[in-house]
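The instructor's notes for this session suggest beginning with a concrete chain rather than abstract definitions. Hand out the sequence below and ask the class to guess, before any prediction is shown, which regions might be ordered.
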Amino acid sequence: MLATPLAERMRPQMLEDFVGQEDVVGKESALRRSIDQGIIPSLILWGPPGVGKTTLARIIASKLNRPFYALSAVSSGVKDVRDVIDKAERSGFFGAGNALLFIDEIHRFSKSQQDSLLAAVEKGSITLIGATTENPSFEVNSALLSRCQVYVLKGLAQSDLDRIIDRAIDRDEYLSKIGLEINEREAFYKLSGGDARRLLNILEMVVAARPNSKFAIDNKFVTQVVQENPAIYDKGGEQHYDVISAFIKSVRGSDPNATVYWLARMLAGGEDPKFIGRRLIILASEDIGHANPTALVLANTCFDAVHKIGMPEARIILSQCATYLATSPKSNSAYKAIDEALKMVKNGGALPVPLHLRNAPTALMKDLDYGKDYQYSHSSPGNFSDQEFLPTEISGQKLFEPGQNPRENEIRVRLRAWWKEKYGY
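After discussion, reveal the predicted structure:
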């Protein structure tokens, strides 16, 4: 085997070798025409891991023959950005053209770090190419985003993965010489998850693990090798989902010790703290809900703070919120209610809105009895009227059931007073 990883050896150097993403870099695409003309805007490449964001940035720099600088938002700060901009501006003075600055995982940059790019992008000192696995509408400052063209890269299809495997077997300086035989590929598809880098890492690992040179690779062998080497699962892979699952279930299970342990595992593994923050917001409604409505407020505040502060201090904010949620009373009543309602909508279709609930902005609608007999709740004693709000076909149905906890017991008392037999009287 060679020292350079297979994924790096097979990294495309030209657009003609770039696999997938026809909508973005196909011969008739707008970006391809811009590249061919030698003029490109600042870009944000949005897509899952391993679909070619970094590779595409390098190919663009090579094609345009411009100075190329690369930073990772994980390990770079404002000073690093300013140093690169200074170098880029100096290189431009010598006729090299404005430089390309590639920032991997740009969604991890704080607001101040993203702001440090604005002036250089506006002046044209650099052409920015940012790569992100997160929706840039949420993760990139609006001022910076407005100066960039966003391109969406998709997970690779099975046909794309086949091309990558075949090309590696045919062209790689090592694999092309060993007479590699692959009888089944389904495990490669499943375990790679549309990620070219992971696919090639798996292929390289499986080849190294063969018992002999005549051994034909099948699904069982691929699965066995990968399971014995969990390091192949990066933060976008199966271990990522296993750990976040353990974290979620620890919060739901009210165990603050396990909660903070799995939180530490994610942070130590390089997980995006904003991803964790989003999960906490979901947990606050899905598993706590009405039992403690303040949980949602705190989780949302936590996400905002993490977005502003960044690591390493964000770990403290995440720990506070996660342990608060873990030790909070639990309820999934809101979660169960909306799922039950969605099931009813799916099975029953779009039932008509009762006439008394319809808006009547025109005389014709009033003539058709739109809004007739509607009872304005605030004109009734206690600001409540026991009229029916559901469609006639499902009148009297109960979709929301309060949980068994102090706060929702109070809600249950109110519902019983209002709706009588529907809630137990």
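Then share the key points. The chain has 20 helices and five strands. Residues 78-93 form the longest helix (16 residues).
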